[in-house]
Amino acid sequence: TTITTTMRGCAKLRTWALVAIVSVLCLTNGCARAYADEGGDGAATRTAPDFNAGAETFEFQAEVSRLMDIIINSLYSNKDIFLRELISNGSDSLDKIRFLSLTDNSQLGEGDAAELDIRIKADKERKVLTIRDKGVGMTKDDLKNNLGTIAKSGTSAFLDQVAKGGDMSLIGQFGVGFYSVYLVADFVEVRSKHNDDPKQWVWQSKADGNFAISEDEGEPIERGVEINIYLKEDAQQYLETSTLENLVHRYSEFINFPIYLYSSEEVAEEVPVEDDEDEDADVSADADADEDDDDDEDADENDDEEEDDTPKTKTVYNTVWDWKRLNDNKAIWLRSSSEVEESEYSKFYQALAKDSSAPLTYSHFKAEGDVEFKAILFIPEVAPSDYYDNYYNRPSALKLYVRRVFISDEFDELLPKYLNFIKGIVDSDTLPLNVSRETLQQHTSLKTIKKKIVRKALDMIRKLAEEGADAEDDEVADDAADKKNEESKYEKFWKQFGKSIKLGIIEDASNRTRLAKLLRFKTSKSDGKLVSLEQYVERMKEGQKTIYYITGESMDALKNSPFLEKLIAKDLEVIYFTDPIDEYTMQNLTEFDDFKFSNASKEDLKFGDADDDEKARFKKTKEAFKTFTTWWKSKLPDDAVEAVKVSNRLSTTPCVVVSSKYGWSANMERIMKAQAMGDESRLQYMRGKKTLEVNPRHPMIAALKARAASDPDSAETEAMAKLMYETAMLESGFSFEKPGEYTARVFDMIKTSLGVEKDAELVDETQFHIVEEEEEKEEKDSEGTEEAPKKDEL
Predict the structure, then answer these.
(1) DSSP secondary structure letter of residue 516
(2) How far apart are CA 208 and CA 59, in angstroms?
(3) By the 8 A CB rule, do 23 and 209 touch?
(4) Angle between helix 297-309 and helix 275-290 axes, rounded to 10 deg
(5) What's CA 579's distance to the chain center, in Å?
(6) Where are the beta strands (DSSP E) in 632-748?
(7) Which of 99, 154, 368, 492 has its CA 20 to 30 A from that of 220?
């Protein structure tokens, strides 16, 4: 008594010593452990049942006792998995009886017994959860051997993993999943009937080191197993139908047999109105009739007679209890893709992704080899609005199943981050899950699965991209409408998930070439349509060795960029990149089909079509401008400008500022400056020095060259040179460190144009007031002169 009282006062202490005391007490006295309320006053709210009278008692195998001790004292385990394990066991039992019925149809029985299903029922009054299957069932010996002396190898392996900090949720993979029921129960009753045994047996255990088996005198079971779980006080949530329904949908949605839950719903019903209510209604009707005119009395009487013939009813709502099926969705990935209809894929996706729209496309395949698995991958039609806001922390949308039982959706190793928009399932019968999750993440089998899934995912996207191209080559008129739809499909994908392809080029070096073929962009010749790199290469000019591109803030800014003047004049196609991530993408994508990429806004731009005469002429021009470019360089800041050169890229613009070959472009500088957590030191390092390129054929350059030659020390000429450089900076997309100096030079130029002296003093604003007063007086005098003739006329 003293020990028991002490235990009640310390109900929340789950130590090994207390568990040992409980076991000794139960073994010696046959007592049942009582629940203590949260208030700690020792008041018992429910007592677990005792074994049936006359039951044969057995002791658990030592390893099983150890196992149950660990489960009972697992404070931080995911208790939800007990339902998954028991349903999985029931499904295995149903599989066995169905297999036996293939050679002996009598094994199934007749009527209700032949319906293979699993049923779940919660009794809130008794605080008992019941799970019933119509599987093969167990004899007395089966109950003793399967539930009391489970294979030592599986139990030992599981105990070793738990001792090392393994995951309790993997218990079912060791063949000891039944014991997860003790996460939520302190007393379990298993009622079973096997076709080979005329008697029905019941197995009972309090998880105290022993169990009892006796002949069951309760409600007959034609065949199968019924598990009655007496829930602990801290597990009462499993009596709620909503909780059970959610768990079945999460873990056992694709079990091959129907799963039913006994639940209630409100049903509307029309019932006759009471006699008293009829009389009240008649009195009201008579009172209304007395107020009518005599001419309408006959018509009213006819109407009343017709109304009296129709029975009066009202709507009432009744609570109706019935069995509700929870797993309507079929595991269609187990079937061959040729056997599955398009509508089935759409319905399956909508159930899996909780999406009301159909998927954009899908891939259904089976992988064979060292690791065998089946999978279905879907691409949603629309990306979540915040998809890229939390890119690196967003969980994978791929679910891992083992034999149709949900295991986890937390294995990010199945897909790389840039493909996390893909939804679907992977089901493997051979994946070795009887290890901790940490070990599984590094397992070679998982790496093999990932490699195959990534390859299939990229093939799925490639086929989606090629559908439009295939239709383009089809000359059949009937395919014209399909062509438009197929093209718009990939355009829709690119609009929603194009950024993911670009991220993949950055992150996945092994698949960079495949991803590059999926890129889409607009060019100087695409007329606003999206094109691919393959299409760009196909229409390159003869002798062209470079793929030209330019990055910027908007399409309009790029089209009017001075960097493209000579490229457009030479009829060379230029790719337009306006997404900020394009800068990062092109840093990792340096070539395609042996053609190098060239940024039109950087130095050393080459066109590849110059002959020897043109090269010699350009060399002489550079020599002629050498003195001028040296003078201009001396007038500019040393830390900002590396050189002043003669340009071969300009036609109508006097000069531009270009970045060094390996430095940041103007667009990249703008992006990096906008970073809230940017590193200023890195910005200074990567910014690099600029090069001022001048157009030797422009009249402004010729005039400035002449001034510099005649008077190189002129302050006015120096100011003009600096102003042209700063203007070129703005037009090239760069910003100033000291914008005040630029604006001062602009204002000085405007003063000169207006004839205002540079050092002119400020004027007194009151002089404008006198002028305004004189103008107002003149206006009044003119108005008075006009009104005088009008008065004379009157």
Answers:
(1) H
(2) 9
(3) yes
(4) 170
(5) 21
(6) 641-646, 655-658, 690-694
(7) 99
Mean pLDDT of 677-685: 64
Nearest residue to 149 (alpha-carbon basis) of 62, 51, 61: 61
Q: What are phi and psi of 406, to 5 degrees?
A: -65, 130
What sign does the dihedral 113-119-125-128 (CA atoms) show?
Answer: positive
Instruction: Compute the distance between CA of residue 372 and CA of residue 549 in angstroms, rounded to an integer.
Output: 44
Please say whether the beta carbons of 245 and 260 come within 8 A: no
Phi-psi region of 318 (alpha: psi -120 to 50; beta: other; left: phi over 0): beta
Rounded to the nearest 5 degrees, what angle is found at the Cα of 297, between the Cα atoms of 292 and 301?
A: 120
Segment 184-197, tens digit of pLDDT = 898 999 999 999 99
Nearest residue to 457 (alpha-carbon basis) of 524, 531, 378: 378
Measured distance CA(713)–CA(383) in Å, rounded: 62
| Nearest partner of 423 among 336, 515, 501, 361, judged by Cα | 361
Structure tokens at 20: 């040992």
Beta-carbon contacts of 20 under 8 Å, excluding residues fewer than 6 positions away, are: none
Contact 656, 650 (CB under 8 A): yes
Residue 675 is predicted with a pLDDT of 74
CA dist 576 and 559 (Å) reads 8
Q: Contact 55/40 with Cβ under 8 angstroms?
A: no
- Report the amino acid identity of residue 711: D
Q: What is the pLDDT of residues 690-703, one digit of tens each?
A: 899 999 999 999 99
What the block records as the tokens of 519 is 């890129």
Q: Is the pTM of this model over 0.85?
A: no
β-bridge mates for residue 599, sequence order? 549
Cβ(559)–Cβ(508) below 8 Å: no
User: Which residue shows structure tokens 């005198």?
Assistant: 217
Q: Which residue has the higher pLDDT, 43 or 296?
A: 296
